[in-house]
Amino acid sequence: MFEGAAVVRLEDGSGRCAGRVEVKHEGQWGTVCGYSWDMTDAAVVCKQLGCGSALKAHEDADFGPGSGPIWMFNVGCRGTESALSDCTHNGWGQHYCDHSEDAGVTCSEFTGFRLVNGSTACEGRVEIHVLGTWGSLCASHWDLLDAHVLCRHLDCGFAESIPRGGPFGRGTGPVWRDSFHCDGTEAHLGQCPVTALGASPCSHENNAAVICSAGSASLRLVGGGSRCDGRVEIFQHGTWGRVLDDQWDMQEASVVCRQLRCGEAETAYNPPKPQRGTGPVGLRGVRCAGHEANLTLCNTSLPESVLAAGIAEDVGVVCWGSRQVRLVNGPGRCAGRVEIYYQGSWGTICDDSWDLPDATVVCHQLGCGGAVKAVGSARFGEGSGQIWLDAVNCSGAEAALWDCPAGSWGQHDCGHKEDAGVDCSEFVTLRLENSDGCSGRLQVFYNGTWGSVCSNSMTLKTVSLACKELGCGDRGILETRLPYEQEASTRGHTSPHVGTPVLSPGGWLLKLSGSPHTS
């Protein structure tokens, strides 16, 4: 540790890299007041603990109130400090707070990313550096948006594919099951929200992998709200350059969107003056038929007379893949007002006919579990700008909200007082504690924490769904009798219902038995 630095720890979080901030001073652990607590302060804590970058600074005892002294108040870090105790504050024990304001942090935990066992530096098995050790990443929650961010971080263009089945060999270290929730615009994976599931069972054949574009004529879109919309730039001879044209249309835009794996082109445009580039020109004048696989396969050798006849300007595209969904103004990333990114701007959804199947699609799309509630009447506040969709009518099985039947984009008879919202369960995954394969105590990962499940009113259908989710066939047996009651009683708890022993104040205990073979 750092000489003269006070020791720091994080308590009551999902792991050693998230929780309530506690500092040891004069031999006693105490908390930090959340007054003026911000991301710069949180970053120092994450750095001191070797937990990567800060994802969130918590101010109001989000990890529960601590006890004992409140050691630090009005913390003011610059971000360059090696330890929290190097930051300015009002003096040890000098504060005007109570433990309802205890500060906390959520750190990325990851301190490095790399691709291994590929034929180039831009393809391979994904490995992450955690707590001084390189390990593989489980592919269970790995998707193209996460892969795009990693490719960009490694200066490898964009993700062309995320092959399954372990094509880049087996790793030797731990296999981490952490789930990233990137929207594709982040500079590196450490900036993406992450659900820390830790090192848990995942076969090495299911390691995450990616093949990045990394070509000498890579394209990118800049200045948009996603990786699939914005001003076009081309990478040639080691430099990113602007693309200029005077007759830019949907044929050229289609080639760009196809090359970037961004789906069909929705719009071809010339950016307004404030969004134009200022760097070197990489390509001036291009004519495509629309079927080319790469922009450089189009006619880029136009005669000087043609180039001189028009005024070449920066060019931009909006591709179908730029569409995104998010939840805003809620208590976390899995509840809030529904907003869609379409045609380069964020807009809301009208609550006409908005119901649970619609909300279910949003929750699944965001990796937020199932839908608990579909809400309307701007429960999460009124949005602004466009109301993109009205009369949405999902079945619940669609992969994305825009796959659902609905009115035409931007056509509605609503105001923002009717903005739709959702509450998602946030359940990310299931596991069997003390498992011998397909039997054990069922636990669910919720809101950053593993917890037990109450067996009251649990039906055979619920058991069947759990078995399927765990890869243990399509049926199972629910066991809630001894010896589990006996184990609970030895921990000092009594059972409020026969057959439903309490393991801890936060949940009940059950045992699930299943078989990996369906019958």
User: Count of helical segments?
Assistant: 7
**Regions with little confidence, pLDDT below 50 for 5+ residues:** 482-519
Largest sheet: 7 strands, mixed
Question: How far apart lie the N and C ends?
Answer: 57 Å
What structural class results from the helix and strand content?
mainly beta
The proportion of residues forming helix, as a percent range, comes to 10-25%
Mean pLDDT level: 80
What is Rg? 26 Å
The total strand number stands at 34
Shape: globular
Describe this structure in words.
This protein is mainly β. Helices cover 12% and strands 32% of the residues. The protein contains seven helices and 34 strands. Strands 15, 16, 17, 18, 19, 20 and 21 form a seven-stranded mixed sheet that branches. Strand 2 (18-25) and strand 3 (28-32) form a beta hairpin. The protein is globular, with a radius of gyration of 26 Å.
